[in-house]
Design goal:
Layout lengths: L1 H5 L13 H9 L2 H7 L4 H16 L5 H13 L4 H17 L5 H16 L14 E6 L6 H14 L4 E5 L5 H14 L3 E2 L7 H15 L3 E5 L7 H18 L6 E7 L3 H15 L3 E5 L9 H9 L3 E5 L7 E3 L2 H8 L4
Parallel strand pairs: 1-4, 1-5, 2-3, 2-4, 5-6, 6-7
Antiparallel strand pairs: 7-8
Helix pairs in contact: 4-5, 4-7, 5-6, 6-7, 7-14, 8-9, 10-11, 12-13
The structure holds guanosine-5'-triphosphate (GTP).
């Protein structure tokens, strides 16, 4: 069933998989394809097209161009601080580089946005241990469970033996939901009763993963801890348990953020990111929103790579983040 979504299953050894950079290069050769592959960004693209029109209408650089540029970036939810930084940077470049037309500013904006997103960042796998452990955090409703399932399906398709741990033990429904997704994508889920110790669930899952010979364990951790202190204490405990089995683990600590909750979600994410050693972000629900500029605010504010983006509710709707193509898609048809 998964092959229907992902195409023909590759035969290669997962350890020799293509890096994101290789994939990016390959995709760059298929430019006409970008618009179609990124069609989920259509509403955000409209915001950037508005920006394109602004730039086109002004063939000399006036103050109103800067004002309209600012309005468009804020409208796409690039966020106040990133927007101001971008405008400052572009004004500086316009002056240094003697820019005379809006087109030149637009090209510079593309460059700055691409730069802001950084290089594509693939998932990190253990170099020392046969088992890679990925922890996932995120608030209620962010799309955490769905993203875990999508990631499991993708990794399984790439040839990994994946297991899930229901470490978010606060709600029976959360455990059931993960079980359900596990069944759907045909990946085993280790769980215990609601309210049991998440550390004990992780311990069980590590044992099970090792005895089964799984090479990736994805741990769903609590998303609704009220304070940073609680979250950190729980993560410390879980980390200690993981390191008894896998000394260089956990290999990823990913936060799932819903793009439609905008700048408020970012405030909370920033607080967590500073102290818990976040290694990456999954931005969900980029489909159907005009707020896709949120990705730039995330990259600018959190200083950790965006590893995946959620592009819909189906299991195949998870895309490794491709910074260059993401920006290219926003400026398509201009
Ligand atoms: N459109 C869209 N919907 C998504 C995406 N990711 C998740 N969702 C939907 O968002 C809703 C919440 O997703 P969950 O995975 O249940 O969220 P959660 O963070 O685990 O939240 P709880 O179940 O409340 O713990 C579901 O209806 C998902 O189908 C996405 O990328 N795009």
């Amino acid at each position: 069933m998964l092959n229907r979504f992902f195409g023909q299953k590759p035969q290669e050894d997962p350890k020799q998989k293509k890096t994101n950079e290789d994939v990016q290069e390959q995709v760059a050769e298929q430019q006409p394809d970008i618009e179609q592959r990124f069609s989920f960004l259509s509403r955000t693209r409209q915001m950037f097209n508005r920006l394109g029109n602004t730039v086109q209408e002004n063939d000399i650089i006036t103050d109103s161009l800067w004002d309209e540029l600012e309005e468009s970036l804020l409208g796409a939810d690039v966020g106040p601080s990133t927007t101001l930084w971008l405008i400052d940077r572009l004004r500086e470049r316009a002056s240094d580089e003697n820019m005379r037309t809006g087109r030149q500013v637009q090209q510079a904006l593309r460059e700055e946005l691409t730069q802001l997103l950084g290089k594509p960042a693939a998932l990190r796998f253990s170099k020392q241990s046969p088992l890679t452990v990925i922890l996932v955090i995120g608030v209620n409703g962010s799309g955490k469970t769905t993203s875990i399932a999508k990631m499991a399906a993708r990794l399984k398709h790439e040839g990994h033996d994946v297991m899930l741990a229901a470490g978010d033990t606060f709600r029976a429904a959360a455990i059931d939901q993960l079980q359900e997704w596990g069944n759907r994508v045909d990946v085993p889920v280790i769980s215990q009763k609601p309210n049991s110790d998440p550390g004990a669930v992780v311990f069980d899952a590590l044992q099970a993963a090792q005895s089964r010979g799984s090479d990736v364990l994805i741990v769903d951790t609590a998303g609704r801890l009220h304070t940073k202190f609680n979250l950190m204490e729980e993560l410390k405990k879980i980390n200690k348990i993981i390191q008894r089995f896998v000394p260089d683990g956990p290999h990823e600590l990913l936060m799932v953020i819903d793009a439609t909750t905008g700048q408020n979600a970012l405030l909370q994410a920033r607080k967590f990111a500073e102290d818990i050693g976040l290694t990456g972000v999954i931005i969900t629900k980029l489909d159907g929103t005009s707020k896709g500029g949120f990705a730039f605010a995330v990259a600018d504010d959190l200083g950790v790579p965006i590893k995946f983006i959620g592009t819909g509710e189906k299991v195949e709707n998870l895309m490794p983040f491709e910074p260059q193509n993401f920006v290219a898609a926003l400026f398509a048809q201009q």
